[in-house]
């Protein structure tokens, strides 16, 4: 069974590790205790939207990208097909492009291997 808090924790941990940052660095920047951030990353605690926003800001990763990655992981677990492109109408709405920073940030969150 897919547990949302575990998927969120995995995505946050992956983003932090890709940046080569420690739990201590991110917890300090997010103004959350190291122990609590560790529990969030391990899927033991539910992050409130405010806390999730603080962690994403500390990681310099848009919350929308974290949630999209979580959504993609859940879709895979449910056996659904995930498009590998962003619809043009979406990029028009958010003012981005597939070559812009949004796409670069998305690539940072992409699973390795």
From TrEMBL:
<dbReference type="InterPro" id="IPR001387">
    <property type="entry name" value="Cro/C1-type_HTH"/>
</dbReference>
<feature type="domain" description="HTH cro/C1-type">
    <location>
        <begin position="12"/>
        <end position="66"/>
    </location>
</feature>
<dbReference type="Pfam" id="PF01381">
    <property type="entry name" value="HTH_3"/>
</dbReference>
<dbReference type="InterPro" id="IPR010982">
    <property type="entry name" value="Lambda_DNA-bd_dom_sf"/>
</dbReference>
<protein>
    <submittedName>
        <fullName>Helix-turn-helix domain-containing protein</fullName>
    </submittedName>
</protein>
């Amino acid at each position: 069974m897919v547990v949302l808090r575990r998927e969120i924790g995995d995505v946050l941990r992956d983003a932090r590790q890709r940046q080569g940052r420690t739990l201590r660095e991110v917890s300090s920047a997010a103004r959350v205790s190291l122990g609590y951030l560790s529990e969030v990353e391990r899927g033991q605690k539910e992050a409130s939207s405010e806390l999730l926003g603080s962690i994403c800001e500390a990681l310099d990763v848009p919350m929308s990208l974290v949630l999209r990655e979580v959504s993609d992981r859940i879709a895979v677990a449910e056996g659904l097909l995930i498009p590998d492109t962003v619809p043009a109408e979406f990029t028009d709405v958010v003012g981005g492009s597939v070559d812009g920073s949004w796409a670069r940030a998305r690539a940072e969150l992409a699973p390795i291997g």
